[in-house]
Structure formats: structure tokens, C-alpha cells
Specification:
Number of helices: 6
Structural class: alpha/beta
Shape: globular
CATH topology: Nucleotidyltransferase, domain 5
Helix content: 25-40%
Strand order of the largest sheet: 3-2-1-6-7
Largest sheet: 5 strands, mixed
Order of helices and strands: EEEEEHEHEHHHH
Strand content: 15-25%
Number of strands: 7
CATH architecture: 2-Layer Sandwich
Number of domains: 1
Length: about 200
């Protein structure tokens, strides 16, 4: 694991706020400070647009405004494919992810997209194939953040466990210090050398 607690933020760079996003209407958002403390979380804030709902980026901004003050924000968002979704659902889901990415880029946050298998492999040590990942997310989230016990009893809130663990994955996998380009809203991954 990368040790960012004391390294994320030096004289030239402010400390980081690590945000995890489990996209979708049943998803959630969570934010961790550099020590891994859970400083904000919520089910995905939604707003009605016609008959459908989409992420409410203004509510998301309000959620992370206070813990974000003076910090570089690094966002890890789950990259989910639309396999098994109907066309309308896939379009709506994709639009929601686009809104979230657009919001993060506009705010000049660092962004990385992560496949569920990638963050789960790191966050669920010893996991065997076929285990229920939602149950595991709740179990591992409660080990790290006991304050989630009450919210996670409500099935609708279970995306909070995923979002918090995605934020923890982001915290653990960013470079040793906040990337210098974080304020530009770019991924932490270095550019590929095509030479």
C-alpha cells in the first residue's frame, strides 16, 4: 500500500481529499482525508429530469465542499460496463457517468477510473471467486469505518460501502505524493511513451 498519510501534501502541494464514486442511481459517493478517515458520504444525490433521475452534481459539490477546503481532490470512479442493461438504461447510466466525469474535470479534480474487479482484488484480500461482493464490501467497510454500521443496515445505502472502498483504493494506489498534474483534472497515470 502506498503511504500517503504523511506524504500527500508538502510545501508545494496541499493535502489530498480522496473521493470514491459508485456511479448509478443506486450508487454513492464517499470522501476520505489523507489518513483514511471517512469525512463525507451519501447515497448518490439525484435530481429528476423528466421521468428519469440523474446525478445531482450541485448536491455532490456541496457534500464535499467542507472537507475539500484547501485540498487537492482525487476522484476514483468505478468503471462499469453496460452488459445486461437495456438500451435506455445503458444510455441513462452512461449519461450519469458522463455528468460525474464532467463535473470532476470542470472542478479540476484528479480522476482515475477503476474496474470493479481491480479495486475489489485489492480491498478484499483472500477473496475467492463466487463470493458475494456486496456482502464483502459491507464487511470490509465496517472493519475500517464502524460509523457506517447504521447506514449500511438499509439496503438502499449499500453503495456507500463500495464508494468508501473505492476511495480507499484510490488513496492506496495514487503515486507517493499527489500527482503534480492533479489540479489539471488529469488521470494519475503517466502518459504512454509511443517511441
Amino acid at each position: 500500500m502506498a503511504e500517503l498519510d504523511h506524504q500527500c501534501g508538502d510545501k508545494e502541494r496541499p493535502p489530498c481529499l480522496f473521493v470514491g464514486i459508485d456511479p448509478g442511481t443506486m450508487g454513492a459517493i464517499a470522501a476520505l482525508d489523507p489518513s483514511g478517515k471517512l469525512v463525507a458520504y451519501s447515497r448518490m444525490p439525484l435530481r429528476k429530469v423528466g421521468k428519469r433521475s440523474e446525478p445531482d452534481v450541485l448536491a455532490i459539490d456541496a457534500l464535499i465542499e467542507l472537507p475539500r477546503t484547501g485540498k487537492v481532490v482525487m476522484v476514483a470512479i468505478e468503471e462499469v460496463n453496460s452488459f445486461g442493461m437495456g438500451r435506455t438504461s445503458a444510455f441513462t447510466f452512461g449519461k450519469g457517468v458522463g455528468l460525474l466525469l464532467g463535473y470532476a474535470r470542470t472542478r479540476q479534480f484528479g480522476i482515475v477510473r477503476v474496474r470493479p474487479q481491480e479495486w475489489q482484488k485489492r480491498m478484499f484480500p483472500g477473496r475467492t471467486k463466487g463470493q458475494n461482493t456486496k456482502e464483502m464490501a459491507n464487511e470490509f467497510a465496517l472493519l475500517r469505518w464502524p460509523e457506517l454500521k447504521k447506514p449500511l443496515k438499509v439496503k438502499r445505502n449499500q453503495g456507500i460501502a463500495d464508494a468508501a472502498l473505492i476511495a480507499a483504493w484510490g488513496k492506496d494506489t495514487w503515486p507517493e505524493t499527489c500527482p503534480p498534474n492533479a489540479h489539471m483534472g488529469l488521470s494519475s497515470a503517466p502518459p504512454k511513451n509511443n517511441a
